[in-house]
Amino acid sequence: MFHRCVSTMGSARSILVGLTVAVMLLCHAAAVSAQDRCWTMAGSTGTVDEADLNLVTLTDNTAAVRSTVAQGTVDVRYNVVAVDGVFGGLQNQKALKVRFADNGAAAQVIVRLQRVGIESGVLTTLGRLDSNDYMAEDQAQTQFERFNCQAPEFDFENNIYYIEAQLIKTLPLVGEPLGNPLIRSIQICPFSDAPC
């Protein structure tokens, strides 16, 4: 009988240890997942400046300058909101990740992450990605720029944040293709693969 009780207690202890390990693994996975969250936005979901509404095409996930427009600039803004894992915690270094198309000299996409002080009204550019810094491609490409390396964490109590994107189409040079600037997606993600 004594041997049976010890055996049952040993089994219960093994089950308890197994459950404890399982809970710890789940908590660790949740913590890692929370750290890897990104703020994301589809290109078509931004707010287009009223003056640019006749220049833009919004389809599926894409904002683009209309193919019938010879030249012009479309300004689109995206409100940035707090997301656990990106805005909070110890990991200050971030990446501004953009999927865009810039097919040559007649197209350009510029994306800026802006911070505005609620009390001061001071505007600061925290991160910037310019399609002209990369090889022109007919198809959309994804690139990123790191930022916020030494800066304090995002502070939504005292600041507002937004993305300002410009889709710029100019008249092509002789022999160059018509410009086709577009934006498909924007992300702000934690970035820890390498120091800034």
Uncertain stretches of 5 or more adjacent residues: 16-34
CATH topology of the largest domain: Jelly Rolls
From the spread of the alpha carbons, the general shape counts as globular
CATH architecture annotation name of the largest domain: Sandwich
Structural class: alpha+beta
At the first level of CATH, what is the class of the largest domain? Mainly Beta
The total beta strand count reads 11
Main β sheet profile: 6 strands, antiparallel
What integer is the average pLDDT? 83
Q: What share of the residues does DSSP label as strand, in percent?
A: 35-45%
SS summary, helix count:
1
Give the secondary structure arrangement, pairings included.
Layout: H1 2-35, E1 39-42, E2 47-48, E3 56-59, E4 62-65, E5 72-80, E6 94-102, E7 107-117, E8 123-130, E9 137-147, E10 159-169, E11 182-190
Antiparallel strand pairs: 1-11, 2-5, 3-4, 4-11, 5-10, 6-9, 6-11, 7-8, 7-10
Task: Write structural notes for this entry.
The protein is of the alpha+beta class. It has one helix at residues 2-35, and strands spanning 39-42, 47-48, 56-59, 62-65, 72-80, 94-102, 107-117, 123-130, 137-147, 159-169, 182-190. The strands form 2 sheets. Strands 1, 3, 4, 6, 9 and 11 form a 6-stranded antiparallel beta sheet that branches. The longest helix has 34 residues, at 2-35.
